[in-house]
Amino acid sequence: MANKPTVLARAGIFLLDMNIQEPDKKLVYEILDTVTITKQHSDWLNWEVLRIGQLARQYADEGDLLRAEVERLTNNCNYLDQKLDEELDNSAMLCGQVERLTKAGDAMLLALNKPDDIFDNTDKNKSIANWQAAKEGKNK
Q1: I want to staple 15 with a disulfide (CB 3.0 to 4.6 A). Which of 23, 31, 103, 119 is the partner?
Q2: Distance (Å, rounded) from C-alpha 100 to C-alpha 125?
Q3: pLDDT digits (tens, 9 = 90+) for 7-30
Q4: Domain of 97, in residue numbers
Q5: 19 — alpha (psi -120 to 50), left (phi > 0) or beta?
Q6: Burial class, 11, CB count within 10 angstroms (exposed 0-12 / middle 13-18 / buried 19+)
Q7: 17-47 b/e with 16+ CB inside 10 Å = b?
Q8: 64 secondary structure, DSSP code
């Protein structure tokens, strides 16, 4: 900031330009105070603009990091969704196998529990064949 005599001289010239022949010292000091306060406000505003610029860059950097994290998590979710679909398919296949095995096992159990004089070996062999087919995942 310029020293007080320089500013005071400028203020005096300003007042002379306004056709005020004898500047009032009080008015000159008021103008000087106003100029000083305005300069301080200007300095403060410049500092605030710099600070806000730094915050904006910081938030932009954080935004980039957050966008990258969202992309990473989205990719993970997509991967996990794919794996879940695969496991659901496997589970459905296994449930079908369990159902077929259970039915074949129940049929074999019924067939094998029948007395030999009523139940012939053909039915027993058929039940055994069904049981083995069910264990291999085949329908008979």
Answers
A1: 23
A2: 17
A3: 555 655 555 555 555 556 676 677
A4: 4-135
A5: left
A6: buried
A7: eeeeeebeeeebeebeeeeeeeeeeeeeeee
A8: H
